[in-house]
Specification:
alpha/beta, Glutaredoxin, five-stranded mixed sheet, 5 helices
Length: 123
């Protein structure tokens, strides 16, 4: 990527990884070598729609260092029950297959930058 491309944001956008089943979750989240932030969202949730471009930006910015995944509330009911999510959006943070944190509600891009710098300084 060129310096101008980095400066002017012409880098290709990276969408969050879609997770829809227990198998997807195991492969894309629990077995991932990178830290993973999972966004549990709902189609009818306004804050979820507001969070979508933020997550694309974070996924693009931290590609290869932190994985961003998304899980719809219409996905596998067993997976949703296992995660015990009570509100949308909910952000779950996993490292080495273990959940290390969760928070509900919209977060701006700066929050992700600060959290990633604090929790994953080598990322």
């Amino acid at each position: 990527m060129s310096l101008l491309g980095n400066l002017f944001g012409t880098r290709p956008k990276i969408a969050p990884t879609h997770v829809e089943s227990l198998d997807d979750f195991d492969t894309e989240v629990l077995q991932c070598a990178l830290p993973v932030i999972v966004d549990v969202w709902s189609q009818t949730c306004a804050p979820c729609r507001q969070l979508e471009p933020v997550l694309v930006s974070v996924a693009t910015k931290y590609a290869g260092r932190v994985r961003i995944a998304e899980l719809s509330t219409e996905a596998d009911p067993q997976l949703l029950a296992k995660l015990r999510v009570r509100a949308t959006p909910t952000l779950l943070v996993f490292v080495g297959g273990e959940e290390i944190g969760r928070m509900a509600g919209f977060r701006p891009e700066g929050w992700f930058d600060e959290m990633i710098a604090a929790e994953f300084p080598d990322a």
